[in-house]
Write a structure and sequence with these properties.
The protein is mostly helical. It has two domains: 22-251 and 333-413, no CATH class; 252-311, no CATH class. 76% of the residues lie in helices and 0% in strands. The protein has 18 helices and no strands. The protein has helices at residues 12-17, 21-38, 46-64, 76-96, 98-122, 129-152, 156-159, 165-172, 178-200, 207-225, 229-244, 249-280, 285-299, 304-322, 339-347, 349-369, 374-390, 395-413. Helix 9 runs antiparallel to helix 17 and helix 9 (178-200) packs parallel to helix 18. It is globular.
C-alpha cells in the first residue's frame, strides 16, 4: 500500500501498521528528535544528544533510499538551504574556528526541519499525525512543569539558559527556557485553531477536546508568567490577528483604524495608567520592564533593558550598512539579538535575503494556499516574521514552524 492510497478518514492506528517499514523507521526517528528538541528533561546529557544526531542520520539514510526522495529534483528552497549552510559553515570556520560551528548547531538543526517538511509534503503530511498528537500531549506536560517552576521562581525560565548547577536543576524539574516559551506562541495558536475549526465548530466534544482547552489555557498562562515582555506582546498581537482578522479587506482597514484611534486616545493617559500598574505589581521582571517603559516615555528615549536590546539591533544594522555586500564575517562585533539583522551584518545582503526566503517560504506558501483558514495562516506568518526579526532562534522553532503548524493546516483543510 502506498502513502497516496491511504485515506485520511480511516483510523490512524490501522494506517500506521500498514505503512512500509521505511516510513515507520523515519517516523520513530523523527518522534525522538521532536521530543528531544522540546523536552526540558533531555536538554542536558551527552547520551540524549547522541541519540538525537543518530535519529537525524537514520532519517536521512532512509530518505536517500526512498524513490522520489527530496534529493531527487529538490525544490529551490532546499537547494538554497543547502547552499546557505555550506557557505556560512565555511566562512564561520575559517574566521572564528570550530567554536563558530558549535554555536550554529542549533540553527542548522532548525533548518533540518525544512528538509523533513519537504519530504512529507511530497508524500503526505498526514503521516505526521502521530508526531503532532504525541507532542501535543508532551507539550502540555512540559507546560505544566514549567508553570510549577515559575510559581516557585518567577525568573526560572530565564535561569535555565545558563550553564550552571541551578539551570540543570530547573531543567530536571521540567522548566522550559527561552526557546520553549517563544515556541509556545506558535503552539498556542495552532492548537487554538484545532479547537476553533475542528472540535468546537463541529461539536466534537470528548475528553481530548477538554484536554486541548486545558492545553491552550495553561500555555497562555506560562507565556504571560514567564517574564518575556516581547513574548507577551506577540501573544496579544497573535490573539488579535487570530480572532479579528477578516478576509474582507474593508473590515481589516476598519480594525486598523480603530487600533490607531485607540492608541491616540490612550496616549494622553497611558503614562499615568502605567505608573498605577507599576505601583501595584510586586518586584519581578514585569515591574522592571514597566519601569523601563515609564522612564523611556518620561525622558523621550529608550532606557534600561529595552535600551540594551535596541542598541544591539542598531549595532547589527550599522555593521550591515558599512559592509552591505559581503558582511563583516566575524560574529563578535554584531548584536546577537536578531537572526535577520545579524545575518545581514555577518554575511551581507545576498545571504540575508536567502535566509529570509528559506525561513518564510513555507509559512508564506501556506498563507497563499489557504482558502478559508486565513486567520491562522496570517497569524503564524506574522509570528514567523517577528520571531526571526526580534530574537535569536532555536531548533524548536523548526519543529513548530515547519512540521507542527503545516500538519495542523493540512488537517484543518479537510474541515473547511
Amino acid at each position: 500500500m502506498t502513502v497516496q492510497t491511504i485515506e485520511h478518514h480511516k483510523p490512524y492506528t490501522l494506517r500506521f501498521f500498514k505503512l512500509p517499514i521505511s516510513d515507520k523507521i523515519q517516523l520513530t526517528a523523527l518522534l525522538y528528535l521532536t521530543i528531544w528538541v522540546s523536552s526540558p528533561f533531555l536538554a542536558y546529557g551527552s547520551t540524549y544528544r547522541l541519540l538525537a544526531f543518530a535519529s537525524i542520520f537514520v532519517w536521512i539514510l532512509v530518505e536517500l533510499f526512498r524513490k522520489n526522495n527530496i534529493f531527487i529534483k529538490p525544490p529551490l528552497y532546499l537547494i538554497l538551504t543547502l547552499f546557505f549552510i555550506f557557505y556560512t559553515t565555511l566562512i564561520s570556520y575559517n574566521v572564528d574556528g570550530i567554536s563558530a560551528i558549535n554555536r550554529n548547531i542549533q540553527f542548522y538543526m532548525m533548518l533540518f526541519f525544512i528538509f523533513i517538511y519537504a519530504s512529507y509534503e511530497r508524500r503526505s503530511l498526514y503521516l505526521l499525525k502521530p508526531i503532532v498528537y504525541i507532542n501535543i500531549i508532551l507539550f502540555t506536560l512540559w507546560t505544566v512543569t514549567t508553570y510549577k517552576g515559575l510559581l516557585i521562581d518567577p525568573h526560572a525560565s530565564r535561569y535555565v539558559i545558563k550553564s550552571n548547577a541551578y539551570a540543570r536543576q530547573l531543567m530536571q524539574q521540567g522548566v522550559g527556557g527561552f526557546a520553549f516559551i517563544y515556541s509556545l506562541l506558535i503552539y498556542n495558536i495552532a492548537v487554538l485553531a484545532l479547537l476553533r475549526y475542528k472540535y468546537l465548530k463541529y461539536k466534537k466534544f470528548s475528553i481530548f477536546t477538554y484536554f486541548l482547552i486545558f492545553s491552550v489555557g495553561i500555555s497562555s498562562l506560562v507565556i504571560l508568567k514567564a517574564g518575556y515582555s516581547i513574548a507577551v506582546i506577540l501573544w496579544v498581537l497573535s490573539m488579535v490577528f487570530f480572532f479579528f482578522y477578516s478576509q474582507n479587506p474593508i473590515k481589516n482597514i476598519f480594525l486598523l483604524f480603530f487600533i490607531v484611534v485607540l492608541y491616540f486616545f490612550l496616549q494622553s493617559y497611558l503614562l499615568d495608567m502605567l505608573k498605577l500598574l507599576y505601583n501595584s505589581i510586586d518586584q519581578g521582571a514585569y515591574r522592571l520592564k514597566l519601569g523601563d517603559i515609564i522612564s523611556s516615555m518620561e525622558i523621550g528615549k529608550v532606557t534600561g533593558t529595552a535600551a540594551d536590546r535596541v542598541e544591539r539591533y542598531m549595532r547589527s544594522l550599522m555593521i550591515f550598512m558599512e559592509h552591505p555586500i559581503m558582511g563583516i564575517w566575524r560574529i563578535a562585533p554584531i548584536g546577537k539579538h536578531s537572526l535577520v539583522l545579524d545575518t545581514f551584518a555577518q554575511y551581507g545582503f545576498f545571504m540575508g535575503i536567502i535566509l529570509v526566503y528559506i525561513l518564510l517560504k513555507i509559512p508564506f506558501d501556506l498563507y497563499i494556499r489557504t482558502k478559508k483558514a486565513k486567520a491562522l495562516s496570517v497569524t503564524i506568518l506574522a509570528l514567523a516574521i517577528l520571531l526571526i526579526s526580534l530574537n535569536n532562534v532555536a531548533m524548536l522553532y523548526g519543529f513548530m514552524l515547519y512540521l507542527f503548524y503545516p500538519y495542523v493546516m493540512k488537517e484543518l483543510s479537510s474541515y473547511q
